Each structure stands twice: as C-alpha cells, then as structure tokens.
Known about the structure:
By secondary structure, the chain is α/β, with parallel strands linked by helices. The chain contains ten helices and ten strands. It is 36% helix and 14% strand. The strands form two sheets. It has an eight-stranded mixed beta sheet with strand order 1-2-10-9-3-6-4-5, with helices on both faces.
Amino acid sequence: MKNNHTCCGGGCHTHHDNNAPQIDVTKMPDLTATHKQTSKADKAPWQWQFLKPKYWGIWVFLVIFLPLIFLPLRIQFIIGKKIGQLAFLLIKRRVKDTLTNLTLAFPNKSEAEKLQIVKQIFINQGIGVFETLNAWFRPNVFKRTFSISGLQHLITAQKENKAVILLGGHFTTLDLGGRLCTQFFPADCMYRKQNNPLLEWFIYNGRRHIFDEQINSRDMKKLIQRIKDGKVIWYSPDQDFGLEHGVMATFFGVPSATITAQRRFASMNKKNPPVFIVFDMIRQTPDFIAKGRLPHYHISLSAVLDNYPSDDEVADAQHINDLMEQSIKKDISQWMWFHRRFKTQPDGRDFYA
C-alpha cells in the first residue's frame, strides 16, 4: 500500500528501510531556505498615529513578548501555558462564551469535563501566541517538527492547472499552520481587516513573511485574478458572520449561520473552476515539551470535494460544517471556541446574554 504520509525531517515515526541512505538531520536546510513563497507583498506603511497613547498597550505587549521568542521553544510553551491560565482567570466574558459554546455543542459532557476543556483552550491559545510570533519572525525553530498527509490531492489539482481553495478552521495554531503548509506549496490567504489599525499593520506585516498575497475579503477583483492564475487560497468558513453571505445549517448539532461565499468562487473562473480541499493542522504532542524534545504538528489535506459546490446551498453548508467538525474533533481544545459561533439564531435567541 502506498504511504501518503510525508515526514519532514524526523518529526514522525514511520518504518524506514535499513538499507536506505540515512538523513543527517543536522544538515537539513532551514525552513526559510525551503519556504515555497513565490512573492512577498509590499509592507503595510507605517503611520505616526501608532504612537498615540491609545496604542501603548499593544506596544507594551510587543516589547515584552517579542524578545521571548528567542528562548528555547519548551520555555516559550511553559510561558504560553501560564499566560493561558492567567487569561482563563481574568477574561471572564470569553470564558463564559467558551463554556456556552461547549455546553451547546457537547450537551452530554459534565460540567467538570467542559471546564477542563475551556482551560485547555486558553492554554493552547497562550501557546499559540508564541507559535504565531515564531511563525512570522523565527520559523526555523520548527525545523523537524511537522508532517503532512494528503498532499498528493493538491499536487494533482495544481498539475491540472486548477486553483485550489483550502477550507480551514480557526485553530489556535492558525498562523503556524500557514507557515508549515507553505513548506510544501505557496499559498494566498483571505482575511478580514482588523478594526485596530496598529494590529492590522502588525499582523499584515507578519503574515507577509508567509503568504504570497493577503486578499481582503472585500477585494473581489484580486480574488478573481488569483483564482484565474491558478493559485492556492486559504479561506476559513467556520465563523458566524450572519446570514448576509450564508445560510442556516447545523454545527455540532446547533443551528448556525454558515458562510457560503466560497461557493461563488467556482463561478469566478467558469472555464476552469477551482477545486476545494479541506485541511487542518493539529499539534499532536502535549503542551509540555520534555527537555531535548520538540513538538510535532500534523497537516491533513482531504481529497478534492466531490460535487462541490452543488445546486443546493444549504446542503453544501451542512457538508462543510460536517467536515469542519471532523477536523475539530481531532482535538477540540485546539479550536477557537471563544468566538460566538452560535450568535445568530432563527428564533432570535441570545445564548450569550
């Protein structure tokens, strides 16, 4: 049987032919040397307004945390865990929202189980801060930490000159997932502009080290052109943005406003429509890294979705939600449950009141 599991430098455990030449991992190239990025967007311009007092809190955060990415990764994880535990104690509204989401999605879990998952979600997000900063500015610390399966589906589509829409969820490993995916193929990402101008400037300039293009969700002209150019484009359809660009479907058994805008991407190049692949990246190791060890991340790419989009918008929405559920269930504590996923309800109920 063919093995479709690709290992990157000793991070996974597979059988090796003893007669095969052995790889000297100390001589493996850095991630920056094997990054598949084909172009880098221009920097977002500096604005002097960023020095106003209302932005000082962000600057304090950056001054404290950016130097910490030069500590060993295991120490960063320990600090990230402490940050997550502190956030769990201080950010009561987000904790309440997270607990509400879990209660709706997993009604059979006990209060103790749900509370433990909430704590782990915040821990994973605290660690995610360091995973993100390293992905942007010090990616080589993740050398020999990741593997991928299903890559052949994307390669085949690209050989057929198809654009690929990667449908991925909002996991705590979000930006690191982008960095590690682009070790195998160049990609664009779609995003919603941050309300805070300084955060927008910082995040955009961080992500320009990863993606070829960052496509504003309102920039249809650029999106159409990138699809016609046959690019790989990351799009996340797993949050509640109301029904302006979506329909009601169930998510973990709960009625949920579900984005369907991606269905229209297929009509943006009618002669050669894009294909759709669902992907996720899960950290497969605990949040505590033993001395001398590394974490391990696994990227999974699905087969090209068959008959998607179909003529049934609601059925398509349900199909995507079901696939997102499958990804999240690999480790429910690595998905960002603190967003108000169920805020839009057909009967007007407010679960978060």
